[in-house]
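SAMPLE LOG
Freezer: B-3
Tube label: C17
Construct: single chain, 189 aa
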Amino acid sequence: MNNIVTQFSDTALALQQNLSFVILVIACLYGIHIVNWMSGFRLNYLGIYPRKFFGLFGIIFSPFLHGNFNHLFFNSIPLCILLSFVLLKGIPVFIYVTFVIFLIGGLGTWLFGRKGLHIGASGLIMGYWSYLLVDAYYHTTLVSVALAGVCLYYFGGLLFNLFPQAVRTSWEAHVFGFCGGIAAAYLTM
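STRUCTURE (predicted):
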């Protein structure tokens, strides 16, 4: 019983220690969005434009760009929580997982996405979500299973984002970000 309490208290402490980094990431997203908004959304040219050479820049930049404040706000909430959970694995794993999701999510969207602009952190969110679920399978610990349970309970509705819904929603980024998270979990096992 003491071991369980220790694991969860260590997890709570790590979440608290990582909070400043998570807040910094979210603040950077809002800062970028304000600059983008003030420039008439000219930074959106750095998004993913499928099968266009200049659209390749979006593989790296698209998760930092959002269509409006509403888009950013509703991405901020799950990103804040899921980012915190992935950071529990440590900074090197966090960087590696993020890189794999950026690469697979962005490249998949660039190769197979519909014509048009693809921006937003939702592909990254889907990647973190799938990573945490699959990681709980590969590295079964009480904490990883609890985190996966929280992901399923509170963010289970993300599963519906893998299917086409609104015309302006890049479900392709959701699907390939999701695949990137699975690949990252597999590659870190």
